[in-house]
Amino acid sequence: MSATHRKVIIIGTGPAGYTAALYTSRANLSPLVFEGAQPGGQLTTTTEVENFPGFREGIMGPALMEEMREQVLRFGTEIRPETVLEADLKQRPFRLKTDQGEYTADAVIIATGASAKWLGIGKDKQLSMAGGGVSACATCDGFFFRGKEIAVVGGGDTALEEATYLTKFATKVNLIHRRDHLRASKAMQERAMKNEKIVFHWNRAVEDVVTEEITTPLGDKVEKIKALKLKDTTNGAAHEMPVQGLFVAIGHEPNTQLFKGQLPMDETGYLKVEGGSSRTPIPGVFAAGDVQDHVYRQAITSAGSGCMAAMDAERWLAEQGLSE
Ligand code: NDP
């Protein structure tokens, strides 16, 4: 099977990928965009976005991504519902293999974003995908925990923000942190500590999730969380905490597995780009959005870096005589 060739291929459809597509399509580069496993990216798992300029009343995350999608389609971007499985950036044109085909590209813009981290005990991720009462997104799933006692794991801003938000639904939110100091900002700490529904459990690590089988009203059998097995990180003592829900809020990891050994990354796996640009050390390969930014991680900064990647790619293609 022969590979389909494009001047520009963009991997990812968060704000970075869509903005890169908007600029490259308006520059007549006919970009092809691979949607990936989470079309629309992380914003599709949020509710209201109040800090994206231009929407004075705010806009729902999924609606914002739908607007971006329609906007790029208007300028001739092609979006394919495919996930890139392999990338070979060592030869030119660059080669990409998706779950449906093979492609080559003169320039590649990587906008694969970041994903929530799991505890590494296996069961948490598994239960989150099967409606088992585990989640990494309070705004997406908080509603399901109305009237229940739940736990949030983590000690950063995300954990405290999620815990505070979840008190709208849950009767009690147990905040489990592996140390006795929070990483979160002072303001966020004060807000959470004032909230009577949040109970802090210091020096505790989640060792395992205890489940039970529930039969739904439709007769389906579902494995649901029932308790957490905790370990005291100072003396190793074991504890069990009954909960009906678990929110994992221990940070994010960049989606860079595809590029291991090909592109330089920092110690946590974020792609390194040349300061003030989107250029990776491989000419013709650019990175935008959360995949190369663990500091700002905002929709608007991500969109801005998508614009930079498109302009960098456009200039590079012109310099190589590849833009016609
Ligand atoms: P952080 O990396 O800041 O915090 C992660 C937390 O999870 C830490 O407390 C860490 O513990 C804990 N943790 C990490 N791995 C594990 C593990 N395997 N088991 C148990 N605990 C673990 O991530 P956040 O997502 O909270 O924040 C990311 C960035 O986004 C930060 O810069 C933050 O300020 C920002 N942010 C800002 C918000 C706002 O201003 N409204 C809201 C949300 C995020 P330890 O402390 O021991 O390392």
Return the CATH architecture of the largest domain. 3-Layer(bba) Sandwich
Distance between the termini: 26 Å
Kindly provide the radius of gyration, computed on alpha-carbon positions and rounded to a whole number of angstroms. Answer: 22 Å
Overall structural domain count? 2
Mean pLDDT: 94
Q: Helix count, per DSSP?
A: 7
If you consult CATH, what is the topology of the largest domain? FAD/NAD(P)-binding domain
The CATH homologous superfamily of the largest domain: FAD/NAD(P)-binding domain
The overall strand count is 19
| Sequence of secondary-structure elements | EHEEEHEEEEEHEHEHEHEEEEEEEH
Strand fraction band?
A: 25-35%
Distinct ligand kinds: NADPH dihydro-nicotinamide-adenine-dinucleotide phosphate
Q: Percent helix among the residues?
A: 10-25%
Q: Structural class of the helix and strand makeup?
A: alpha/beta
Low-confidence stretches: none
User: What would the principal axes of the Cα set say about the shape?
Assistant: elongated
The CATH class label of the largest domain is Alpha Beta
Largest sheet: 7 strands, mixed
